[in-house]
Amino acid sequence: MHLFLKYLFILFALLWYGMFNVYAQHEGSGIPFSRNTIAEDAFPLIELMPIDSSEIVAAKSQKIAVNAIVREIDIRTASEGAWYKIKDRNVWVARLKSAYAQSLSFMIENFFLKNGEKLFIYNAYEVLGAYTKASNRANRKFATRQIKGDNVIIEFSTPYPVAESGTFTFTSVFHSFSVDEYTSCNINASCIEGDNWKKERRAICKINVGARNCTGVLINNTLKDETPYVLTANHCIWDNTEAENSVFTFNYETSACNSQIAYAGHVLSGATVMCGRYENDYTLLKLMDHPPVSFMPYYAGWSLRSDENLDTVTVLHHAGGTPLKISQSVSRPLDSTFKEDDEPAYANGAFWLVQKYNFGITETGSSGAPLFDKEHLIVGTLSGGDASNLQCKNDLNDYYQMFNKSYTVQPLTGLPMINYLNPNNAPVASLAGFDPLEKNVYGCDTFSNIADTAGRVLHLYPYGNGYLAGHNEDSISQFGEVFENADSIVLYGAWFHVAKCGTNGNIVVRAFNGSDFSSSAVFEKVISQSQMVKDKYHYIEFYPGINLTGNYTITFQVEYQHSDTFAVYMSALNNEAKVSSAIINNNGWQNMTDFLPGHESVSFDISAMYCKEKNKTAINKAEISQLKVFPNPAKDWVVVNIEGLTNPEVQLFNIYGQVVNISLSINNSFIKFNVSNLKSGIYLIKISCKNRLIIGKFLKV
């Protein structure tokens, strides 16, 4: 296997198991141009007015969880910061400080970037971005995830003249403060109490609506098509303005039972309200982006039954916006009506009343959290109840909307929830959860019809202007590569070696089961050329994987309504090479060998990424989990948490899979690596302990 592709596959495999810090589709990667180029003190400073302690007291007194103070700002390239020339780019930089913030996050509006432009938000702890043209939204705005610390540098770079560059305006900053007064009252979901809830934990998300915190759950529908519906409370999100400005953080839980360290990188931004009703206090959202494979998403099941499986109920929630907690009651909830002082009436008899928890409690921030029955199916979501106190009172009266009552009720806007969660009108009283990762695979690899040692060539079109594998004079637009296969596999994606790309046109990628092109495509995805970079391998994810048996074909189609040029690299022409490539010519597929003047064989530089299927009995029982690495990117040192691990074996690898010897110090809680002498690049840390494998990565700058 080609060394470069082997490295990329290693990265993908880690993504598959959720090992890497991968963010939402609107956020890419990279290193800011100004980092280590210009002294931070030289950047213009925007210093916000200090937060008054009375503001925090007032915020904490609200019924809904608030962990941040909102400051309205107006930061744009025309009025703040300074422009620099770095290499061939115009780079705008500004520095912002909001003293004593635990972390900062932002609302960005009027966001419209052009091809090649990048926006970063970074500090000594981490980097947000790059935000690019691929981050553009129809409403021209989105909310960022949190970045640790009370100061950040905002960098925007463009290859265009300043007057012709893209636009954005930072309109709000959220200054977060500590909200962990009741941490001791709750039980982390990573403790033994949460061991039987590992799948459902992957469905839970912390929701930030500006400065407010709530909880939501990714919920399954009868088509099991992974439509990213999230169920939460109506008092958390009630309209599209709230939904569009919300941030959804998945897998936000502590690294160990007694740890306070939690990773908050699995983030998606923005949603649409499908339906909701104040009287039943529910809202069904649809995320703007589906959770990628690296999030290890799980779509929780639900039940309309109210007569069984309720003698034990469990709630997974983000109390106070903290890492995921678990609470449980072993008493059947009562049918009840939820009442709040000075609030309009809720629906009569449409709420479950949980009077006491046997362990754990709920708090502000738990609102919207799912209540599961004994079969791990959703029967409601949290609306409200009595507040706890520092004595960790657990005999609370907590009220959950009854899912079976909300399921068919007519909402204020949109269709009843049944239309979305049961679109095919299936006769179901309950629906099991769906795990898109529950594929039993082994032997994961990449495969190309081009030998590792062979060269890659950009072939000119033999019958006129253009390229053999791209735009050409005869407007041939569809190209296919056949892959021989004798196994049952799961096809997860393909790497395209892009030789030429434009700025406006689209590429349509398809996958077919078989090699005769007669069947319907089993996968289709449209990709903008603006998301690609020439002379680079570009990965197309076939989410969440395609089950195939025997030969298969991967094709791409270019558009001709734009003047942009697109082409893919190929192997050298060879009369003895495998016949694997084809084109659409004269309304039908034709082997490339028959099409070429000299009848040579040639292959597209497309590599399939797949795993073989295996029996469930052969599954490796080793537990694989994610390692938290701080700071990241790193300059002089990194620290990883090893709480709860006994005699861990530690290894560091470079991008070529070679072990790197490095100075480190270990105590009972942390390992500290001295990385000051390492070359810049990506490094992998692997920690083995008994039957656990913990993997993480960091970027050395």
What does this structure look like?
The protein is mainly β and 701 residues long. 6% of the residues lie in helices and 38% in strands. It contains seven helices and 47 strands. Strands 2, 13, 14, 15, 16, 17, 18 and 19 form an eight-stranded antiparallel β-sheet that branches. Strands 22-21-25-26-27-24-23 form a seven-stranded antiparallel β-sheet.
List the helices and strands and how they pair.
Elements: H1 3-16, E1 45-47, H2 53-60, E2 65-66, E3 68-75, E4 82-86, E5 89-97, E6 103-112, E7 118-122, E8 127-131, E9 142-143, E10 147-148, E11 151-158, E12 167-176, H3 198-201, E13 204-209, E14 212-219, E15 229-232, H4 240-244, E16 246-250, E17 266-269, E18 271-277, E19 282-287, E20 302-303, E21 313-317, E22 325-329, E23 334-336, E24 351-354, E25 370-372, E26 378-385, E27 398-402, H5 403-406, H6 418-421, E28 430-431, E29 441-448, E30 478-483, E31 488-500, E32 506-513, E33 523-528, E34 536-549, E35 552-558, E36 567-568, E37 581-585, E38 588-591, H7 592-595, E39 606-613, E40 623-626, E41 629-630, E42 637-641, E43 649-653, E44 664-666, E45 670-674, E46 681-689, E47 692-700
Parallel strand pairs: 1-5, 40-47
Antiparallel strand pairs: 2-14, 3-12, 4-5, 5-11, 6-9, 6-10, 6-12, 7-8, 7-11, 13-14, 13-16, 14-15, 15-19, 16-17, 18-19, 20-28, 21-22, 21-25, 23-24, 24-27, 25-26, 26-27, 29-39, 30-35, 30-37, 31-34, 31-36, 31-39, 32-33, 32-35, 37-38, 41-42, 42-45, 43-46, 44-45, 46-47
